[in-house]
Design goal:
By secondary structure, this protein is mainly α. It has 2 domains: 32 residues, no CATH class; 59 residues, no CATH class. Helix content is 76%, strand content 0%. Helix 4 packs antiparallel against helix 5.
Length: 97
């Protein structure tokens, strides 16, 4: 418990004082500070849709695009079960062919 209190910003410490158990502190911190991936996901979807080749070579364009795609897949798959991940991969592979 003291390790958590000593590790967080002093402004947050007061919010943790009511908790007597470290697990409860972690639950509180996760609830308060976990972020929804909607905004980054939307941003990546937009970037993927409008990504311009401009003066990039095909190799550079493909490489940059695949980096964006990998980041997007990481967000999409993050909260999916193994079955959900398999289903999404199947759809993506079908669309890619």
């Amino acid at each position: 418990m003291e390790l958590i209190i000593g590790s967080v910003d002093p402004n947050i410490v007061l919010n943790l004082r009511p908790f007597a158990i470290a697990a409860n502190m972690w639950e509180y911190l996760e609830k308060i500070y976990s972020q929804n991936n909607s905004a980054p996901r939307f941003q990546l979807e937009h970037e993927l849709l409008v990504y311009p080749q401009e003066s990039l070579s095909i190799y550079e364009f493909y490489s940059h695009f695949m980096n964006l795609w990998a980041e997007y897949i990481g967000i999409v798959f993050k909260d999916l079960s193994a079955e959900g991940q398999t289903a999404v991969q199947t759809v993506h592979e079908t669309q890619r062919d």
